Amino acid sequence: MRRNQRNIRKSKKNNNDTKKITSLLLKIIFILLVLFLIVMVFNIASNWLKYQSATKQYLENLNSVENNNTENSNTEESTNSDTTFNLTAIGDIMCHNTQYMDAYNSETGEYDFSYVFDDINYYIKNSNITVANLETTFAGSDKGYSNYPRFNTPDALASNLKKLGVDVVSTAGNHSLDYGFDGLSRTIDVLDSADISHVGTYKTQEERDTILYKYVKGIKIAFLNYAYGTNGISIPSDKTFCINIIDQNLIKSNIEKAKSEGADIIIASMHWGTEYSTTPNDTQNQLADFLFQNGVNIILGTHPHVLQKMEKRTVTLENGSTQDGFIIYSLGNFISDQNAANTRSSIILDLQITKHTDSTVTVDNINYIPIYMYKNSSATTKKMKLLDINKAISLYEEGTDTSIGSSMYTTLKTELNNISKILNQ
Are 152 and 183 in contact (CB under 8 A)? Predict the structure, then answer.
């Protein structure tokens, strides 16, 4: 009997102990759960704050980019302090049949040139404004795509150039009328559809009488463009407005108009010079003097298909003050499949320009990226590629990328030396 009572008391004691342990465990679990929820809430709140901060920073950066981007800066802004921006310039955009055949995708039936720019697009995308020269037409597939002596290129090149970051193209050149006024007009339409500004060719007299302005950080930049001729193709007698041919009276009139309309900077793209000559001719020298004396700040030369020298000048204005002037007599080819000496090497030119509060303009820094139009003959597709010469040489020497091969490595070293000699002659 006593033993049973002891067992009962022991059982009750065990039950009480179990209940206490269970209760304690439940309390511990509850505390852990509360702590877990607190941590979760804290993390959610922390992440939310980080997200809010990141979003705010992103929007601030986006607004900053939009304010600095030419595409979204076509309204005048006032500037009360010195303002500095970067202008990037690239040379002749040519398209031979080997290029558009390389860009053709037989499965989709479409053209895509974007891969050509993969190695160098960084330098252009990060510029405030990029200017190029269009050395072909977009006359339409119904005319048949073609290269020299009459260029007609797939429209896709225009959208690829826009994606690359090209803002303005000069269109007055010796190939502007390769497909007549209709081809010239359609080229303008394609550029408009791609949202690329253009200067030098026109569909109406009214368009020709209108100066092209772009705003960068509130600075009003006027763009002018003139060509020496049209390869003997007659300009329609009832449409003489369709292309700007080099004429000092016309040029001076346009410069004066740009000044009267408040242009802060005037940039002239000149389609001139002797093909394949790495030195400017007398006409280029004389016209350069004329342009500077009449108020042009920057001269960008095109047409020779090879680089020519560049120089910075001190220009004396009518009021006796001075400001910087800059000229590159020829930017050479940007893309092409020409094989004559110096036609595959060129530069991406970068100018740091400041407009000062006294309205004078200075060219503060002149930099350039040497580039080369590489053609990988052993590849079956996407053979064409613009190389950053210094980068390609460096990667080859490090053994990181030897895909160009020893022969091309030697070629790039030679081309790099040639570029330096030509630009600084």
Answer: yes
Same domain as 275, residue 156: yes
Question: CB-based contacts of 219: which residues, under 8 Å, 6+ apart?
Answer: 79, 83, 85, 264, 265, 355
Confirm whether 290 is domain-assigned.
yes
Q: Is the pLDDT of residue 340 over 60?
A: yes
Note whether 54 and 163 are same-domain residues: no
What distances in angstroms separate CA 176 from CA 66, 92, 205, one per listed residue?
A: 33, 13, 17
Residues paired with 226 in a beta bridge:
270
Q: Please choose, from the candidates 295, 236, 231, the residue with its C-alpha nearest in 3D space to the C-alpha of residue 263.
A: 295
**Residue 244, amino acid:** N
Tell me the per-residue pLDDT of 74-83, one tens digit each, with 9 for 90 and over. 444 445 799 9
Classify residue 377 as left (phi > 0), alpha (psi -120 to 50) or beta.
Answer: alpha
Cβ–Cβ under 8 Å, residues 421 and 308:
no
- Shared domain for 279 and 323, answered yes or no, is yes
Provide the CB-side half-sphere exposure for 416 (13 A, CA).
Answer: 15
State yes or no: cis peptide before 149, omega within 30 of 0.
Answer: yes
Q: How far is CA 302 from CA 147, 151, 260, 272, in A?
A: 18, 17, 27, 6
**Using CA atoms, how far apart are residues 345 and 50, in angstroms rounded to an integer?**
47
Question: How confident is the model over 126-132, as a mean pLDDT?
Answer: 96
Torsion angles phi and psi, residue 174, rounded to 5: -70, -10
Asked whether residue 266 is assigned to any structural domain, the reply reads: yes
Cα four-point dihedral sign 172, 177, 183, 185: positive
Query: What span, in angstroms and rounded, lies between the C-alpha atoms of 130 and 334?
Result: 13
Q: Judge if 47 and 83 occupy the same domain.
A: no
Look at 77 and 263; give whichever has higher pLDDT. 263
Domain boundary (68, 101, 125) is at 68
pLDDT value, residue 41: 54
- Residue 73 is assigned to a structural domain of this protein: no
**Banded model confidence at residue 17, pLDDT cuts 50, 70, 90:** low
Structural domain range at position 15: 1-68
